[in-house]
Amino acid sequence: MEIPTKQQKVVQVAKGLPADVLRIVDAPVERPAPGSGDILVQVRAVAFNHLWKLMPVIPAFLRKLPAVPEIELAGVIADPGESAFATGDEVFGFILTNMLSSDRGALAQYVLMKAIHVVHKPAALSWEAASGLTCSGLTAARALSLFDTRPKKGLRILVAGASSALGRAAIQIAKGQGAYVVASCSAASAEGVRALGADEILDYTASPLPQQLATAYPYDKSRPSESPLALDLIIDCIGADPKLYTQSPAYLAKDGVFVQPGIDTSGGALKTGWHLAHAKWYPGCWAGGVPRTFRFLSVQVADDESLERELAELAGWTQDGTLRMEIDSVHAFDRAGVMTAYERVMSGKARGKVVVRVS
After folding, report:
1. Which of 130, 10, 7 is nearest to 75 (CA)?
2. Which domain holds residue 163?
3. Model's pTM, two decimal places?
4. What is the per-residue pLDDT across 156-193, written as a single tens digit (0 to 9) for each?
5. Is residue 114 part of a domain?
6. How far is it, in rounded angstroms, from Cα 97 to Cα 33?
7. Is residue 330 located within the same domain as residue 265?
8. Residue 209 is part of a domain; what is its CATH number?
9. Do 140 and 281 lie in a common domain?
10. Structurally, how many domains does the chain consist of?
């Protein structure tokens, strides 16, 4: 494969919203250095996440700028470096970095990344679907298993924000493991969510979701053995309403777990910082807090040794029919296309992954 010396990439140049701080620039194509563990990937597609929410929140002096945004991709090995991959191998994965100290990202024609952060792409999987598999799939799988190791068969699980890419992945993986899945979404998304296998659907726009849950899945602490409808696990894919957790003793079993993979950043830097601290260190019942286990989960919380196994498991699920990655829309790799993609993600109305097709 002939590798050019120059490429185009998108960079964030300052703190602010994507339309104000992103630029498409010409840049050199870097090659893997000996001993770095890096590979060079020619990017085919990039899936967008909600990392844009941090662009106007993290002060520029705390970030290494300019930086390439986004982390999920699918592409072709252009230079395998010292890895076991070969030039031309089709792969998918994500760029697992500390965004405060690294300028690496996926939204470019060529990217340097760690070989351990990609696996071979199943031949039948499209570039678009493969690019969006990692974050939603990994986060959903970890939300289901990392903090609640009980067998999922028969467990009652709520997926809040079920029409999001993460929610859609969580429903499919949970159903594949034999769980009973309750999904919350708008009426407009109900048909698509039900098609993924959800057993029950709650319209969160009809009335406050905690109120609906307390009525439909009550937990009576005085008679826990007589609360068969109470939920065992809640996965809050949106993180917009703290009451879903603070009122959870009314519908989440005593040994149940509340997992929040996402967090709302709409209130600005100060409020977001408070939410992050609240999510990580919220006091349990021993300190007068909510008497239910709360766990905040980021896909970036991982160890390299298990990552390859997890990515291979995701690939296997797409091949055996357990997991189908839903694509909301595909956009061009130019300023208009990139901005339209961000607008779609920022609207909160995307039903599945928003993807930019790079090449």
Report:
1. 130
2. 136-297
3. 0.85
4. 999 999 998 899 999 999 999 999 999 999 999 999 99
5. yes
6. 17
7. no
8. 3.40.50.720
9. yes
10. 2
Q: What type of residue is 58?
A: I
Tens-place pLDDT, residues 122-160:
999 999 999 999 988 988 998 888 666 777 788 999 999
Written in H, E and C, the secondary structure of the chain is CCCCCEEEEEEECCCCCHHHHEEEEEEECCCCCCCCCEEEEEEEEEECCHHHHHCCCCCHHHCCCCECCCCEEEEEEEECCCCCCCCCCEEEEECCCCCCCCCCCCCECEEEEEHHHEEECCCCCCHHHHHCCHHHHHHHHHHHHCCCCCCCCCCEEEEECCCCHHHHHHHHHHHHCCCEEEEEECHHHHHHHHHCCCCEEEECCCCCHHHHHHHHCCCCCCCHHHCCCCEEEEEECCCCCCHHHHCHHHCEEEEEEEEECCCCCCCHHHHHHHHHHHHHHCCCHHHCCCCCEEEECCCCCCCHHHHHHHHHHHHHHHHHCCCCCCEEEEEECCHHHHHHHHHHHHHCCCCCEEEEECC
| Domain presence at residue 71 | yes
Q: Which amino acid makes up residue 2?
A: E
Side-chain-side CA neighbours of 14 within 13 Å: the count stands at: 4
